[in-house]
Automatic annotation (TrEMBL):
GO MF assignments: RNA binding; RNA methyltransferase activity
Keyword Ubl conjugation: no
Transmembrane segment boundaries: none
Alphabetical list of PROSITE patterns matching this protein: SAM_MT_RSMB_NOP (PS51686)
Protein family (similarity comment): Belongs to the class I-like SAM-binding methyltransferase superfamily. RsmB/NOP family.
Domain of life the protein comes from: Bacteria
InterPro entries: MeTrfase_RsmB-F_NOP2_cat, MeTrfase_RsmB-F_NOP2_dom, RCMT, SAM-dependent_MTases_sf
Active site per the UniProt annotation: 370 (nucleophile)
Name listed for the protein in its UniProt record: tRNA and rRNA cytosine-C5-methylase
Species of origin: Simiduia agarivorans (strain DSM 21679 / JCM 13881 / BCRC 17597 / SA1)
Extent of the signal sequence: none
Residue ranges occupied by any SAM-dependent MTase RsmB/NOP-type domain in the UniProt entry: 143-421
GO BP terms, alphabetized: RNA methylation
Length: 421
């Protein structure tokens, strides 16, 4: 029932938002929610594989050019399969070697096992088995090369793409993780504390906890937390979060400023900035200013910023393909296209070009995306260095998955040349 309801949604619908609005109506029993959501997420992530397995089963042979098939495949094709077919193929992806199975499933089991065995030598089968399009393997292999991944890391990255990451938590206060864990458990939230950090994995909603209500704790992916840490703004300095959205990174940056200095947050969407203001107030951050900025022209610097010739730190977490968030948003991968990414590359350059003049001499600029695609990352770094020779590269790296159980993000830090004395 829940699969059919999801399939009836128009293209572009965000799975997490749809579930938040409709899950309780579709599934009245709260105890069943977690298992059903996990299964639906996996069905969405593996929907091309399900189509591929069904196609090969109907064809009756293994001599299929999967790259050519992929070029013609569209996500809507999964609607041609019955709910029982989808359930069967999904079950065989999750467990290709069932202990017990009906005799009529024997050929399907054999096909699934053969498909899995072929992933070792066939890149297209490897991609399909992990919920990735065969046509993406060239770009993924390039990412592995640029990041120096081993075969094990590439395998871990691919396997993770159908597995949602934990709900990572960030402390906004000086409370220790151990203290936070105790408080959350007292409020009925199931949490885990590891070397990587604190995460929730069930129980009551984080938003109902006393820590969240008091603004002492925020939900923020681990890779995003690491990115925020690259903006090393000190109390008393001036920083600008260009594409602030609802303020996840703004609040993380502001926490280190201790209400000293000025933190500007802009976005193209007023509704997101209103949410940012509510969150900042809850967190007790009063040095944050916010307003809409469209990136159509360089920013008119606030007076106190102009007096020092610009901001000490400017962050552009640019609009992107969001390929690094497919673990949390499995449906987003089926919207990923080369043409759309090229449009985003131009938008990213426009935003960067109009943000860079706001960096003071000797100041720092941070460029980031939640994408693993080289075109949005390393190629943009190379473009910036060519177009703006007064900036030098301090560092660039991929954050998160496969090295952490999180989203995947890219970050590059630049330094603007100081004024000659």
């Amino acid at each position: 029932m829940i699969w059919q309801a999801w399939q009836a949604q128009p293209a572009g619908t965000h799975l997490d938002r749809w579930l938040s609005a409709n899950l309780a109506k579709l599934v009245p029993a709260p105890g069943a929610h977690a298992a059903l959501v996990t299964r639906l997420q996996k069905a969405v992530a593996y929907q091309q594989l399900i189509c591929a397995l069904a196609h090969q089963f109907e064809a009756g042979h293994a001599n299929i050019d999967w790259l050519a098939w992929d070029a013609k495949w569209t996500p809507e094709q999964v609607t041609r399969l019955s709910a029982s077919q989808i359930e069967q193929w999904l079950d065989l992806r999750l467990n290709p070697e069932p202990a017990q199975a009906a005799p009529e499933l024997a050929k399907k089991i054999q096909l699934a096992q053969s498909f899995r065995a072929g992933t070792e030598s066939n890149p297209s089968l490897f991609a399909l088995w992990h919920g990735l399009r065969p046509g993406w393997m060239a770009a993924i292999s390039k990412r592995a090369e640029l990041s120096g991944w081993s075969k094990a890391q590439l395998n871990a990255f691919a396997a993770a793409q159908a597995l949602p990451p934990p709900l990572w938590l960030r402390l906004q206060s000086d409370m220790t993780p151990e203290q936070a864990k105790t408080s959350l458990e007292q409020d009925g939230v199931l949490v885990e504390l590891s070397e990587q950090g604190l995460c929730a994995h069930g129980g009551k909603s984080i938003k109902l906890s006393q820590l969240h209500k008091a603004g002492a704790l925020e939900v923020q992916d681990l890779a995003s937390q690491c990115l925020s840490g690259r903006v090393e703004v000190r109390p008393g300095q001036k920083a600008w979060d260009v594409c602030a959205g609802a303020g996840g990174k703004t609040l993380a940056i502001g926490a280190g400023m201790h209400n000293k200095g000025m933190l500007l947050a802009t976005d193209i969407h007023e509704r997101k900035l209103q949410e940012l203001k509510r969150r900042a107030k809850r967190a007790g951050l009063y040095n944050i200013r916010s307003f809409v900025w469209s990136a159509d022209a360089p920013l008119a610097l606030p007076k106190e910023v102009a007096q020092q010739q610009g901001f000490d730190w400017v962050l552009v977490d640019a609009p992107c393909s969001a390929s690094g968030t497919w673990r949390r948003n499995p449906e987003a991968r089926w919207r990923y296209t080369t043409a759309d990414t090229e449009e985003l590359v131009q938008l990213q350059r426009k935003i960067v070009s109009n943000a860079l003049p706001a960096v003071r001499p000797g100041g720092s600029f941070v460029y980031a995306t939640c994408s693993w695609d080289e075109r949005e990352n390393e190629q943009q770094v190379a473009w910036l260095l060519t177009q703006y020779p007064d900036f030098s590269l301090v560092s660039q790296s991929l954050l998160g998955c496969p090295d952490m159980d999180s989203d995947t993000m890219f970050v590059a830090v630049f330094r603007k040349m100081p004024t000659a004395s």
